[in-house]
Amino acid sequence: MHFTLNNRLKVIVLFLMTAVFTLSAQSVKDLEKQRKATLQKLEATSKMLNETNQSKKTSLNKLNIISKNINERKTLIKNISSEISMMDVQIKKLNDEKQKLESKLEKLKSDYVKLVQEAHINRSLYARIMFVLSSSSFDQSYRRLRYLQQYSDYRKQQVGEIEQVKTEIVHKNDSINNHKVTKVEVVKQKEVETKNLSKDEQKEKVLLTDLQKKEKKLREDQKVQQKKAAELNNQIERLIAEQIRKAEAKRAAAEKKRLAEAKRRAAEEPRYKAKSNTKSSSKSTSEERPTASTTPSSSASVSALTKEESLISGNFERNIGRLPWPTSNGFIRGHYGIQPHPVLKFVTTNNKGIYIQTPAGSNARAVFEGVVTQRFSIPGSNNGVIIQHGNYRTVYANLTQIFVREGDHVSSKQAIGKIYTDDDENKTELYFQIYNGRNVQNPEHWIAR
C-alpha cells in the first residue's frame, strides 16, 4: 500500500512538472507572437510619424502618433520582461533535467564498470566453456548457458542506454544554449526599446509644450472640427433614417397589397360557391377557386427583414468582437464616446464613431459581407459609403475615391475606397461607424483587438 501510494505521488508530481513546463513553453511562444505583433504596430506608427515629420509645423497629429508610439513601446517592454522571466523558468527547468540525466549517466557508468570487472574475471573463452561443462546436469548446463547469453545482452543494453542518455544530455545542452542566445537578443531589444521610449517621451514633452503655447489656435481648430463632425454625423443619420423609412414603406406597401388581394379573394368566395350546383361544376369550381384568407399572417411585419437580410444580420451579430478592422493597419486616434482633448484642459469631444489613422495610400475595406446602399459626399468631409448587413449598417467616411456602386454586394475585407490624406499634416484617417437600425454602436466592441 505504501509502495503504491509513493508511486502515485511520483506520477502526480511528474505530471504537474511536465504540465508547468509545457505551459511555460506555450506562454513563451504566445509572448513572442505578441511581441512581433506589437513591433508591427510600431513599424506602422513610425512610418506615419515619418510622413508627418515632412511637415515642419507642430501639430496635434504628431502628438497623437508619438503618444501612440509611447503606449505601444510600454506594452512591448512589458511583454519582453514577461518573456525574459518565462525564459529564465525554462532555462532552470532544462538545467534541472540535465542534472538528473547526468546523475543517471554516472550511475549507469558505475554499474557498467562493475559488469566489466566481473567480465574481466571470466574473460577467457576457456573459463566460460568450463563454467558450462562443469554443470552437474543438462538442465544446469542450459541455465548457465542462458545466464551467459542474458549477461551479454544486458551489457549491450547498458551500453545502449548510456549512449541514449548522452544524446539526451546533448539535446538539453543545445536547448539551454538556444534559450540563452534568444534571451540575450531579447534583453538587447528591451534595452533598445527602453532608450527609444525615453526619446519618445522627451519628444512628447517638447510637442506638448509647443502646442500649449498655441492654445487659442487649438481652440479655434477644435470648434471647426466639431462643426464638421456634427454636420457629417447629422448627414449620416439622415441618410440611414431615410433608408429605413423607404424600406419600411416598401414593406408596408407589399403588406397592403397582400391584404387587399386576400380581401378580394374572400369577397369572391360566395360567388364561387353559388356556381357549384352540380358535382361536375363543383369539381370545376374547386379546381379554379383560389385560396382565400382574411387574416393577415402573424409573421408578416412592416419592419420585418427579408430572409437573406435576417441571415446576414444574425451572422453579423455573432461576430461581435471578431470583425476585421476597416483598414489593413493603423491605430485608433479618436475613440468612441466622450474623449478629453490631448492638450486643452476641460475640453472634450463626443465621437459617434472611431477615427483610425493609417499610412498614406491606404484603402478602406468592408468589415463584413453586405450590400452597398449609399455613396455620399459632404463638403469638408470628402466622400463616404454605407454598407447594409441586415439590420446593421457600417459607415466609411473621409474617402477620396470610391471603388463600389450602390447595389453592389461586397465581401469581408473587400477594398471599397481610398482614404483621404491631409497634405497639410500628412495625415490619413478613416471615420468608421456601426449602426443597429437607427442606433449608433461602439465600433471598438465589434472589431477584433
Automatic annotation (TrEMBL):
Gene Ontology molecular function: metalloendopeptidase activity
UniProt keyword annotations, A-Z: Coiled coil, Signal
Signal peptide: 1-25
Region (Disordered): 255-305
InterPro entries, alphabetized: AH/BAR_dom_sf, Cell_wall_metabolism_enzyme, Dup_hybrid_motif, M23ase_b-sheet_dom
Biased composition, class Low complexity, residue ranges: 275-284, 291-303
Ranges of Basic and acidic residues composition bias in the record: 255-272
Keyword Coiled coil: yes
A Pfam family that the UniProt record links to this protein: Peptidase_M23
Name this protein carries in UniProt: Peptidase M23
Organism expressing this protein natively: Paludibacter propionicigenes (strain DSM 17365 / JCM 13257 / WB4)
